[in-house]
Design brief:
Order of helices and strands: HHHHHHHHHHHH
Shape: globular
Number of strands: 0
InterPro entries: ABC_transp_permease
Helix content: 55-70%
Number of domains: 1
CATH class: Mainly Alpha
Distance between the termini: 68 Å
Protein name: ABC transporter permease
Membrane topology: Multi-pass membrane protein
CATH topology: ABC transporter involved in vitamin B12 uptake, BtuC
Radius of gyration: 20 Å
CATH architecture: Orthogonal Bundle
Largest sheet: none
Main location: membrane
Organism: Thiomicrorhabdus heinhorstiae
Strand content: under 5%
Amino acid sequence: MALNPEVIALIIVTIIGAATPLLLAALGELIAEKSGVLNLGLEGMMIMGAVIAFMTVHNTGSATLGIVAGILAGMGMALIFAFLTLSLQSNQVATGLALTIFGLGLSALLGREYVGIAYSGLPKLDLPVLSELPFFGKVLFSHDILIYFSLFMVFATFYFLNRTRSGLILRAVGESHDAAHSIGYPVIAIRYMAVLYGGAMSGLAGAYLSLSYSPMWADNMTAGRGWIALALVVFAMWMPSRVLLGAYMFGGITILQLHGQGMGIAIPSEFFSMLPYLATIIVLVIISRQSSASLAPASLGKPFHPTH
């Protein structure tokens, strides 16, 4: 396959599509972790968002309702996690793992009648002149609203964390929940909101998967993307701009399995399929040797016991 401009544009568009669910879920998890909560249930929240969004679109015909339903499904799963870990003080790691297992099983049950049903996909942006530009029209003006929203949220997340009072309070809670509590901030309420926001973004990422990236429902269609999104937060050292970089890097690795053999590279397809997960392990090993843990919120994963 010759790398002419049309092919390059197609590859870039494919990378953007593959990166978007990772970006959405990772940005949500970043906010949750900045508040001091480690939620390993991204995979479960994403898959529930995917199945509920697809079921809603199939039964109502409304993409808007489907997206909203996916967000609410992710928030519902996050609420379960928040109640167990913040109100009942259960272990965050064990609860997050249980949430993922629960989500995968429940989604398979709910979606059993929808397996293999196709959907036309979310409408693409169509600007009469800009969308017809050679190369740039395809790369910049041929996407659906969720892709543009994911890019906007990178800047919105940076602004929130670094330029607003609410972002400062969130970071203070994540750094020292005892100190934040002592000066009157409602630590549990703040963490509830952060976890629910993370669930909403993960549900939206799942909705993007079933309504746009692969517009259909299939069991386990998240295929480990929740775990990659978790690794992205660590890779990004809890910075939104690096989440964007990491998501597109992993998106590029993901689409190698689609383009590698088409370009005549004589490597088994199974090797390309495992590349995103192999890259995740390599990145985590490299980061762990660079003492990135010191950049993590100091209260991350630690239970808060309010004193009166």
